From TrEMBL:
Pfam families: YCII. Residues 1-99 form the YCII-related domain. InterPro entries: Dimeric_a/b-barrel, YCII. This is YciI family protein. Belongs to the YciI family.
Length: 146
């Protein structure tokens, strides 16, 4: 079962503050622990929303708005993807998140299970599943070229 840990942004992150040496060391140790356990799949930090954009479908077309998006309380600063045997195991890893990377009381990480092809039912036909798998293979090749 794959899960994504969504890391919320903070005002410091939105101002472009990248973190302290201790935070980087703690996060690296956490990722290494997950890697050694064989559950780490991927993880990345994201630039502040000032470097981003949103696209909204309006009146039959996509309308793009450049960041920053300070009005939203649901900003994402990064993610980690893990592959574990159960939701309980995912929660165990979530509880090991480095305290130094939780900047304030009330800071909350979000855990979401990633959908698998089987979760979509019959609407994802065998032909569509095969095309999806081919796309994943190609995407893995693209990532390897990095």
């Amino acid at each position: 079962m794959r899960f994504m840990i969504l890391v919320p942004s903070t005002p410091l992150i939105e101002r472009g503050t990248m973190g302290t040496e201790q935070q980087f060391a703690d996060m690296q140790a956490y990722n290494e622990e997950m890697l050694k356990a064989g559950v780490f799949v991927d993880g990345e930090g994201l630039h502040p929303t000032s470097k981003g954009a949103r696209a909204a479908w309006q009146a039959g077309e996509w309308v793009v708005t450049d960041g920053p998006f300070a009005e939203s309380k649901e900003l994402v600063a990064g993610f980690t993807i893990i592959d574990v045997s159960s939701r309980e195991e995912a929660l165990e890893w979530l509880r090991k998140w480095p305290v130094s990377c939780a900047p304030e009381p009330g800071y909350a990480l979000e855990l979401r299970q990633i959908l698998r092809a089987e979760d979509f039912g019959d609407e994802l036909t065998p032909e569509l599943r095969e095309r999806e798998e081919q796309m994943r293979v190609e995407a893995a090749r693209n990532a390897a070229r990095g």
